[in-house]
Design brief:
Layout: H1 20-49, H2 58-91, H3 95-125, H4 132-137, E1 147-154, E2 157-164, E3 174-179, H5 193-201, E4 205-209, H6 223-242, E5 245-254, H7 256-269, E6 288-292, H8 298-304, H9 313-321, H10 329-334, E7 348-353, H11 361-373, E8 378-383, H12 397-412
Parallel strand pairs: 3-4, 3-5, 5-6, 6-7, 7-8
Antiparallel strand pairs: 1-2, 2-4
Helix pairs in contact: 1-2, 1-3, 2-3, 3-12, 6-7, 8-9
Length: 417
């Protein structure tokens, strides 16, 4: 053979990747790597969102909601994305694609594990716990109330009381009255039934109540507090009738409901709670108050709260008071929990998501510090990476963190099953 002779090329049937099955496999592993890159990139972006204020734009707001709701799911997705990268590495093909996909997946796995772990650690640090099987499935009790009735009718409006009896029956069960949030102008007891049922499943006799809502032409700064005070008197009576332990009475509320729960408990202890059903007698003093991300400082909220979805704290605070806090100093004082704080104030737990800038966390920290200086027993349980409504899915790590912290804290006071 001359030196210029070209060696024959292998026949096509002997080449490595020419078979139809191998071609399909090559495409499949490429698609798998692309899917892994998309998953990793998405989770990495959500992790990056934690570096910015949730109220800055919708992207960071989505990040603030995502982690307390779906943190464990993101960890699992990151692991699956990592597995999808393996075929491309085994084939040693497409180095750019596999490098990008692997890098994004690594960032996603590390960040999702750390963020989820930090949230779960806050539950344990504050006496709570998290069931990961429940968190992955987001399972939660869905049964509605055992009974619904009006506890009072005012201004022609019947206000509902939705009663939840624990599985073991009402006899001897500690009593909890729950007040829904919604910026004093929206929301309802019915919309909060999942939360009420989750506490009933933990052994509490729960009464979930409505109250008069505000609008642009009707200020309810005096009406909503009077309604929940009436609701507490009704709850105490009804619980005793049903055989529950009305001597272990807790008021719980979220957001605007958290404000009303603090105002009710603190003013009742000061002898200053006015009721919309005075015929029921004095407003009982609850043994404890629990408020999640409450509007505890209306002035601070109005001045500093963000409105990422168009729900403006400045507007709903003005509507509630019938004017801005600066223009309504007497009304502001009347609805400020700190007005009534003293050593008689019931033990109070504030569950505070640290990233909340809708109802700014700093305002609630300030109220708690002022109350403590006045001699009140106020505890703040901080939840990192949490935003307003972080506990909206009771079965999620955010929901479990909130509920388990509350139950543990009440157990320490002898007010839980």
């Amino acid at each position: 053979m001359s030196e210029h002779t070209v060696a024959p090329r292998p026949a096509p049937e002997h080449r490595a990747d020419v078979g139809p099955g191998r071609v399909r496999f090559a495409r499949a592993r490429t698609v798998a790597a692309v899917v892994a890159a998309i998953i990793g990139g998405f989770i990495a972006l959500l992790a990056l969102g934690t570096a910015f204020g949730p109220g800055e734009f919708v992207g960071t707001l989505a990040s603030a909601f995502a982690w307390p709701f779906f943190g464990p799911q993101f960890v699992v997705l990151s692991v699956i994305a990592g597995l999808l990268c393996i075929p491309l590495w085994r084939a040693r093909r497409r180095p750019v694609l596999r490098g990008i996909a692997t890098s994004l997946v690594a960032i996603a796995l590390v960040s999702s594990t750390v963020i989820t772990g930090v949230i779960v650690k806050s539950a344990y640090d504050n006496g709570g716990s998290v069931n990961f099987a429940q968190a992955l499935t987001l399972s939660t009790p869905i049964e509605g109330p055992d009974e619904v009735m009006a506890y009072v009718t005012v201004d022609g409006e019947p206000q509902q009381a939705r009663v939840f009896v624990p599985e073991g029956g009402a006899s001897g069960a500690p009593v909890m009255m729950y007040i829904h949030g919604g910026a004093w102008y929206m929301g309802s007891a019915e919309a909060s039934d999942q939360i009420a049922r989750s506490f009933a499943s933990a052994g509490f006799y729960v009464v979930n109540i409505d109250y008069r809502l505000t609008n642009s032409t009707r200020a309810t700064w005096d009406k909503a507090p009077a309604d929940v005070a009436c609701g507490l008197a009704w709850t105490s009576e009804r619980a005793a009738t049903d055989g529950a332990d009305a001597d272990r009475l807790t008021v719980v509320g979220d957001s605007a409901g958290g404000h009303l729960s603090m105002l009710l408990g603190w003013s009742a202890a000061d002898g200053a709670a006015a009721s919309s059903c005075p015929e029921r007698g004095d407003v009982p003093v609850p043994d404890a108050v629990v408020a999640s991300y409450p509007v505890a400082d209306l002035m601070y909220t109005s001045d500093n709260g963000t409105a990422p979805l168009g729900v403006d704290p400045k507007v709903f605070t003005r509507n509630f008071l019938g004017g801005s806090p600066a223009d309504q100093p007497e009304r502001l004082r009347a609805v400020s929990p700190l007005t009534y704080v003293s050593e008689r104030t019931p033990p109070t737990l504030i569950v505070q998501p640290e990233r909340d800038d809708f109802i700014p966390a700093e305002g609630n920290y300030g109220v708690a510090a002022d109350a403590q200086r006045a001699g009140a027993d106020v505890t703040v349980a901080r939840v990192p990476f949490g935003y307003h409504g972080f506990d909206g899915l009771p079965g999620s790590i955010g929901g479990q963190t909130r509920s388990s912290i509350v139950v543990s804290w009440l157990q320490g006071l002898g007010l839980a099953p």
